[in-house]
Amino acid sequence: MIGKARTLLKNIFGYQDFRPLQEDIIKHLLAGNDTLVIMPTGGGKSLCYQLPALVYGGMTIVVSPLISLMKDQVEQLHEDGVRAVCLNSSLDNDEYRKNIHDIKQGSIKLLYVAPETLLMPATMKLLDGIIINCLAIDEAHCISEWGHDFRPEYRKIATVRKHFPNAVCMALTATATPRVQEDIKNNLGFDDSDAFIASFNRENLFLEIVPKTNAYSQIIRFLEKYPDQSGIIYCFSRKQVDELAIDLETDGYSVKPYHAGLDDKIRHTNQELFIKDDVRIIIATIAFGMGINKPNVRFVIHHDLPKNIESYYQQIGRAGRDGLRAHCLLLFSYGDSQKINYFIEQMNPQEQIIARVHLDKLIGLAETDECRRIPLLSYFGDIDLVDNCGMCDNCTTPAQEKIDITVQMQMFLSCVKRTGELFGVHHIVDVLRGSESIKVIKFDHQKLSVHGIGKHISKKQWLHLSRQFLSKGLIEKEAMHGSIKVTQKGNEILVNRDVLMGTLALDKTPLVRAARLTEAEYDSELFSRLRMWRKQIADKTGVPPYVIFSDKSLVQMATCFPENSDELLQIHGVGSVKNKKYGASLLKIINVKK
């Protein structure tokens, strides 16, 4: 069966070969084994159930959380000549009835439904007489209460399996810590041997984290490097989204806002404009993006700090899905972490502990002097790490020279002890810098000998130093309230007066080097003409441009200059259906250029 799958891979989807793990996953599934797939965004998860669906004789059910996600995949499958439908509230009565009719006739290979729709008695009755080969659960992290996007309906999907005893089950996600992975397997009854875990490393994403100084100026300088490119800017609040959208539009940028406070129709319209390349930049809260599969997003900017590493990873994962290089910039300030702390304080005690641990991990990523990918990937249990990725600001900037920070360490640890080891980092820093805040006065800490001894060091630098003391095991943070205590190791280094080497935080200016689409030399003029042609076709057929062809396909055309139909079939993403539909037009454009 894998031989048939290989033929379909080329003829239907236009791919020359499988991507890492895809062939092993498909073999495992076709052999009748349940399969858990943990694969980064852009790694090719969808193909792992779409291709077997074409090999099977019956139908594959795909559980998907968002209407936009279903619509996107169904449109792309139709372009490739695959019979796929969805059942959701966006369909009018005629279209819904037609889809029901086609399902009953047995002509549909893939059915996309939300978990709520699948659990309905009417849906179960509809599927009673249909041969179901596979139940594929997309965004499977929603099953776990330890996931960042838990949905109760997802946990109920396990009960549906009893209705399809002969169907193999596949669960797929891009963001799952080891704990979430175990929860998914336990809920669905998978064996450990059923898991395929790819590296979480998105090698084509350039990661950059810089201190937020003047956010608007920093964003403008960044955008100047990416004219006419698609991107997303994430903000903490709706107010910030609206203000930034107005400012950028005033300055001539093609932007639209997106957040839960907007009217549903406006929000949907703005998303469609972005997907169809009619608007270049979306400015959004976290409400945006889960259902977006737009592959040519060339940058993601975080105007504010996300709440945890999972959110950060998921959001930067919306960039560079076509495999071409993309740039991810995070503007970091400790003030943003205080905003998140405020919301954490509104949670119940158990949730606070988890949220604070997650926030600390994210701040550690922002403050690290080592390769950004080390703390990012190790968070997900990915142990295949390198010392220098060559695709983050720390690895492409000369390492900061280490200095003697023994005196600063002694000041900090002494202050922790003299305040009774009952306070968090920010209070310790306030005391060291001589603050006379209400809290400092309340506890008479202005009378301590350590009060003001570190005023020559900025707050940012003290916070950066504290992270180093934490990572070196000199202090530890109490999970519930965040109070700092000196460890045994910290006490020993104080008594022995050992020398400690480290770094003082320095302001870094954004690198903002434009990310090349590819290392290959391609004809930019031809690429532009192909993009214009693609946009015209997409507008005429009512689908997003990337559904016609991805940027990766157009770049290859503008690099290889295919001369005939056979050579066009060697281009990534050009299958037999698309070649028949668009081949003549493409060759005409390419040959005119030549």
Provide structural commentary.
With 594 residues, the protein is of the alpha/beta class. It has four domains: 2-197, Rossmann fold (3-Layer(aba) Sandwich); 205-396, Rossmann fold, CATH 3.40.50; 403-502, Arc Repressor Mutant, subunit A; 524-593, DNA polymerase, domain 1 (Orthogonal Bundle), CATH 1.10.150.80. A seven-stranded parallel sheet has the order 3-4-2-5-6-1-7, with helices on both faces. The model is unreliable at 509-513 (pLDDT under 50).
Give me some keywords for this one.
Arc Repressor Mutant, subunit A; 28 helices; 594 residues; alpha/beta; 4 domains; Rossmann fold; six-stranded parallel sheet; 45% helix; 17 strands; globular; single chain; seven-stranded parallel sheet
Instruction: Please compute the radius of gyration using only Cα atoms.
Output: 27 Å
Tell me about the largest β-sheet. 7 strands, parallel
The overall pLDDT average reads: 88
Strand order of the largest sheet: 3-4-2-5-6-1-7
In CATH terms, the superfamily of the largest domain is: P-loop containing nucleotide triphosphate hydrolases
**Beta-strand share of residues:** 5-15%
List how many beta strands DSSP finds. Answer: 17
Shape descriptor reads globular
So how many helices?
28
The poorly predicted ranges are: 509-513
Category by helix and strand content = alpha/beta
How many domains, as an integer? 4
The name of the CATH architecture of the largest domain is: 3-Layer(aba) Sandwich
- Measured distance between first and last alpha carbons: 42 Å
Proportion of helical residues: 40-55%
CATH class term of the largest domain = Alpha Beta
Which fold does the CATH topology of the largest domain refer to? Rossmann fold
